[in-house]
Amino acid sequence: MILPIIAYGDPVLRKKGIEISEDYPKLKEFIANMWETMYEAAGVGLAAPQVNKAIRLFIIDASPFADDENISEEENAQLAEMKMVFINPKIIAEEGEEWAFNEGCLSIPDVREDVFRKPTITIEYLDENFKSHTKTFEGIGARVIQHEYDHIEGILFTDKLSSLKKRLIKGKLTNISKGKVHADYRMHFPLMKKGR
C-alpha cells in the first residue's frame, strides 16, 4: 500500500524516533509499504517519520546511483547491491573531510541544495530480521544513510544549510507546508486548509 509522504512543516518530522522491538505491530507489512511508497516516489531512501511514524527505522536503495562514471567501479558495485533496512541504527563514527553533494528530500519537493557531510561512516543496526550488524560505508552510500539517519533524529537536510541559503528557500518551504507545491506522488500537507 502506498502511504502519503509527510510534507515539510509537520511536527512528526521534528521528533526523535523511538526504538522498536521485534513485536512492533505489523512491522513486515509496514516495511513492505515503505518500499512501495519509496519506489512510487522515485526515492533512494525513506525514513519512518516521513510516513508518519516516529520510530527508528529507515530503508535505502542506492542502486540508482550505480553506474556513475565519476565514482570507482568498487563504489558502483557497492551501490548496486545497497538495498537495505535499518532498524534502531546508531552511527558510531563519521570520518574524513566533509564534501558537498546536491541533496533533495521526498518531504521537501522541488528543493535541492548542496549539503556537506563526512565521506565515511560506521553504523550499528538491526536488519528486517532483527539480526545485528556493524558496517562501514563510504561515499554516496554513506551520504544516503546519513540523510535518512537524520530523519530519525528529527533533522532535515535544510537544517544543514547556511543561514543565507535558509533565507533564500524560506518562501519555498512555507509553500510546501501549505500544500502549494506539485509532487508526482501522494503527500500529506500539515497546514492545508481542511475541506480543500
TrEMBL record:
Metal-binding listed as a keyword: yes
Residue sites binding Fe cation per the record: 105, 147, 151
EC assignment: 3.5.1.88
Protein's recorded name: Peptide deformylase
Cofactor: Fe(2+)
GO BP field: translation
Keyword RNA-binding appears in the UniProt entry: no
Organism (species): Gillisia hiemivivida
Catalysed reaction, written as an equation: N-terminal N-formyl-L-methionyl-[peptide] + H2O = N-terminal L-methionyl-[peptide] + formate
Class in the EC hierarchy, top level: hydrolase
Role noted for this protein: Removes the formyl group from the N-terminal Met of newly synthesized proteins. Requires at least a dipeptide for an efficient rate of reaction. N-terminal L-methionine is a prerequisite for activity but the enzyme has broad specificity at other positions.
Superkingdom assignment: Bacteria
Xref: InterPro entries: Peptide_deformylase, Peptide_deformylase_sf
Active site: 148
Annotated NCBIfam families: pept_deformyl (TIGR00079), PRK00150.1-3 (NF001159)
Similarity comment text for this entry: Belongs to the polypeptide deformylase family.
Keywords for this protein: Hydrolase, Iron, Metal-binding, Protein biosynthesis
Cofactor binding note of this UniProt entry: Binds 1 Fe(2+) ion.
MF annotations from Gene Ontology: metal ion binding; peptide deformylase activity
